[in-house]
């Protein structure tokens, strides 16, 4: 069965919807320029709702070490997702020092980008293949050409992100064989405004694929 991450949750109502619909992972964005940014206090409150029901993924972008440590200490996520230009060495350091699951997002343009992921082998728990950064490092609602994934020798568990919606997620799973699908703007009615019905539809469709 494919794991499902609903990213960029910021309200109790939409967190409840994601948990009720069967999301395996819920994402909290702590990155001030994002319309989905949540404070550490709000992230901690939302994290408590998910405890024991889904894994909480805290998302940071090129954060300094003190900010990273403070965020992990405050929110106590199950997973930290790095969505900037964090190096394999940085990911490994955080994974060892903080003792939690570490994911690295990579914006995919072509096969060489996929090949870059191998540098993270043994240093992260999952690679998230996303569309390349545009206005924001992620959460832009754009897809990449999934055909580059065909035949690639994945050495690290991976997930698929970028422009996934209730309408295309089943096809994405069938085409790519992703172990995890991740959506943010595909379940929104405006940037940062999640919709309960779209969250439910996305999860139902992904679970049925
Ligand atoms: O969601 C954001 O606002 C965001 C901001 C900065 C870095 C990453 C961000 N999101 C990361 C995610 O994991 C998204 O779910 C992923 O990029 C897919 O987004 P979308 O194409 O909107 O479904």
Describe this structure in words.
With 209 residues, the chain is an alpha/beta fold. The protein has a single domain (3-208), classed as TIM Barrel (Alpha-Beta Barrel), CATH 3.20.20.70. It contains 7 helices and 10 strands. An 8-stranded parallel β-barrel has the order 1-2-3-4-5-6-7-8, surrounded by 6 helices. Helix 1 (12-21) links the parallel strand 1 and strand 2 (25-29). Helix 1 packs parallel to helix 7. The longest helix is centred in the C-terminal third of the chain and has 13 residues, at 196-208. The relative contact order is 0.18. The model has no long low-confidence stretch (mean pLDDT 97). Bound molecules: the ligand O=C(O)c1ccccc1NCC(=O)[C@H](O)[C@H](O)COP(=O)(O)O. Residues 4-204 form the N-(5'phosphoribosyl) anthranilate isomerase (PRAI) domain. It holds the Pfam family PRAI.
> Numbering strands along the chain, what is their spatial order in the largest sheet?
1-2-3-4-5-6-7-8
DSSP strand tally: 10
Bound molecules: the ligand O=C(O)c1ccccc1NCC(=O)[C@H](O)[C@H](O)COP(=O)(O)O
- In sequence order, what are the helices and strands, one letter per element? EHEHEHEHEHEEHEEEH
Q: Assign an overall shape.
A: globular
Instruction: Give average pLDDT, whole number.
Output: 97
Question: What is the count of DSSP helices, taking H or I runs of 4+ residues?
Answer: 7
Report the sheet with the most strands, covering strand number, pairing sense and barrel closure.
Answer: 8 strands, parallel, barrel
**Considering the protein shown, what is the CATH homologous superfamily?**
Aldolase class I
Distance between the termini: 9 Å
Relative helix content: 25-40%
Beta strand %: 15-25%
The tally of domains stands at 1
Query: pLDDT below 50 for ≥5 consecutive residues: which ranges?
Result: none
Subunit organisation of the chains? single chain
Report the C-alpha radius of gyration, rounded: 16 Å
Corresponding CATH architecture:
Alpha-Beta Barrel
- CATH class, please? Alpha Beta
The name CATH uses for the topology is: TIM Barrel
